[in-house]
Design a protein that fits this description.
Two copies of one chain form a homodimer. Chain A is mainly α. Chain A folds into two domains: 63 residues, Winged helix-like DNA-binding domain superfamily/Winged helix DNA-binding domain (Arc Repressor Mutant, subunit A), CATH 1.10.10.10; 138 residues, Four Helix Bundle (Hemerythrin (Met), subunit A). The first copy, chain A, is built from ten helices and three strands. The first copy, chain A, has a three-stranded antiparallel sheet. In chain A, a hairpin with a 3-residue loop joins strand 2 and strand 3. In chain A, helix 1 crosses helix 3. The radius of gyration of chain A is 19 Å and the shape is globular. At the A-B interface, helix 3, helix 4 and helix 7 of A face helix 3, helix 4 and helix 7 of B. Chain A binds a DNA duplex through helix 3. Chains A, B: GO terms for molecular function: DNA binding; DNA-binding transcription factor activity. Chains A, B: This is DNA-binding GntR family transcriptional regulator. Chains A, B: Keywords: DNA-binding, Transcription, Transcription regulation.
Chain lengths: 230, 230
DNA sequence: AACACTTGACTTGTATGGTAGTAGGTTAGT
DNA sequence: ACTAACCTACTACCATACAAGTCAAGTGTT
């Protein structure tokens, strides 16, 4: 007898809709739910011990973020990855973050630079095969940049874009070239600290392109996870 | 007796949830529903002759887009405008569209330039006090740029940002300086046609800043529509 | 064998009842 | 007159039942 009546998964004190959303979102990003996989309002509701309604609302949010695809009367599926769409979202992220670092470099606060360098030290400590650990620090780094520029809406867009990109990173078989990424983080900080807007901008543009170098390889080795209509 | 039982407003063939979303979104952007105004699932459902559920889902989508604010057990309100948040979203739009025009200017297709110039002629024809007419052409213009760059996701972000900015433009009492805006459109096209990335970028950045020149004035004259926690 | 049809088990979409929480006005108590 | 408790009328949230569409397997017919 294993969980004929599954335990309550969601906590009290917060609406269950957003909770379901976060749970599913996390599982999709971390490739626990694979691209192409079929979901179902009823199944998810049962496994989380909630009704269909909050699950449905979570599905809607996920579909707006592009993580699932809802086909009326047919089913809901984790959206397959497509090289074109990943490059498309990366383009948006690069544009936003390029302008963000220009703002930060234009008036580099000493505390900000110190905080970024502190984070850099943390990043060097993390093991090269601890994806989750590094990605958490990476997220913190980029969030700190956005916060330093005082752009909260910009960050919310980046968060959404980052989800799509992180999904790819979780599928990479080899390490994430963490060493190189950290070096690039350092170049960004150097540019900011020197007040050199253009240098900082070029550094982060290069950085954001580097992240997806493994994409073509993944598209070949795991073609079943990719949209083949391109 | 006026509309004791209101007529069916939504059409068949498409789910009502998205329809309700579009209807409310339009009414909010065009300032028919004013910032701060109270909404209600039940009321909206009754007035549209649908059930509360699709309305609720529309509210959720609107709240993600930042057009309404849902306070659990308290009510749903059209989000008030705030100078800071409008500038925040404008920043994102500028960053994205700047990179878009650089892409387009980097490889300017003759048909694209011709299409843009054709649209420019249309814009000159529209009356200076026909807000809706001009805004539709303006949206087409910017969409054409995004499409020419092949960035569909970028456009979806712009659409969301544009909603927030257009809401302000609908509150402007005077004309929208349409003449000046059209001149700037022309400068953008010129930069693209010349293959001058930097000129095109500077032109669109200036353009997107120009759009909100009336914001401070509106914030003074219609303070009740603005968030006062800033 | 091949094709058209039916049937049934799915899917998401919509409507509705009930629950818990909030806010404001009213009434009872001091 | 003032305060505190209550009470009513709302709100969004959740659960459940029903409706409508899709798809595939199976069946009957040609």
């Amino acid at each position: 007898m294993q969980n004929a009546r599954p335990a309550k998964v969601v906590a009290m004190g917060e609406s269950v809709g957003p909770q379901v959303y976060r749970i599913l979102r996390e599982r999709i990003i971390q490739a626990e739910l694979l691209p192409g996989e079929r979901l179902s309002e009823s199944d998810a509701a049962k496994s989380l011990s909630v009704s269909r309604q909050p699950v449905r609302e979570a599905f809607i949010k996920l579909s707006e973020e592009g993580l699932v695809q809802v086909l009326p009367q047919r089913g809901t599926f984790v959206t397959k990855i497509s090289v074109a769409s990943v490059m498309d979202v990366r383009f948006v992220r690069e544009a936003i973050e390029a302008d963000i670092v220009r703002v930060v470099a234009g008036d580099p606060a000493a505390e900000t630079v110190a905080e970024l360098r502190r984070q850099l030290a943390e990043q060097r400590k993390v093991s090269h095969d601890d994806r989750t650990g590094f990605l958490r620090l990476d997220e913190l780094f980029h969030h700190t940049l956005a916060a330093a520029a005082g752009k909260s809406y910009a960050w919310s867009v980046i968060e959404s874009v980052k989800a799509q990109m992180d999904r790819v990173r979780f599928l990479s078989v080899d390490d994430l070239h963490i060493g190189r990424l950290i070096e690039q983080h350092e170049k960004i900080i150097d540019g900011i600290a020197a007040g050199d807007k253009t240098a900082a901008e070029e550094a982060i543009r290069l950085h954001l392109r580097e992240i997806l170098t493994s994409l073509p390889e993944i598209a070949r080795s795991r073609a079943e996870l990719f949209d083949d209509t391109e």
